[in-house]
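Amino Acid Chain and Its Fold in Token Form
===========================================
What this section holds: a protein sequence and its matching fold, both as plain text.
Structure line: whole-number tokens from a learned vocabulary of local backbone shapes, matched to residues.
Purpose: to set a sequence beside its fold so the mapping can be learned.
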Amino acid sequence: MPSFDVVSKVDWSEVTNAIDQAQRELVQRFDFKGTGAAIERAESTIVVRANADDRVKAAYEVLKEKLIRRKVSLKHMEAKDPEKAPGGTARMNVLVKEGIDKDKARELVKLVKGSKLKVQAAIVEDSLRISGKKRDDLQEAIALFKEKEKDVELQFVNFRD
């Protein structure tokens, strides 16, 4: 029975490259001189630091520009508000969301069932497995996801006949 998986994964090597490029740009740009602006990765979080809230936001904009150039979707990023940090500096935490959470997975299953396609959807950990009798039905399901789902960046992997 043909099937495929619907996942939401982040290419961490591209995220690391984007952080490195943004950090290099912050060091070189005149408007960031003396602000102590820095971007670093900690686990599944990116920390943006500077001496003022507006400089933190500007550094985050530089990071977003680099992520877009590296083809990393901003749908994975969830930026918190800048907060005061020790030493009179400001800090912003950016959470990198990976995987499909349970509520969103249930919503996607309802979408498949409501479409009247002849496929089955099952939640498997942080992904969705779609299976059906015909390959064409699976391709229709992929088209449905691409058309309807705008909140989460989805990839379609493990297509098996």
In short: The two ends are 6 Å apart (CA to CA). The chain has four helices and nine strands. The beta strands are 3-7, 38-42, 45-50, 77-79, 83-85, 89-96, 119-124, 127-132, 155-160. The mean pLDDT is 89.
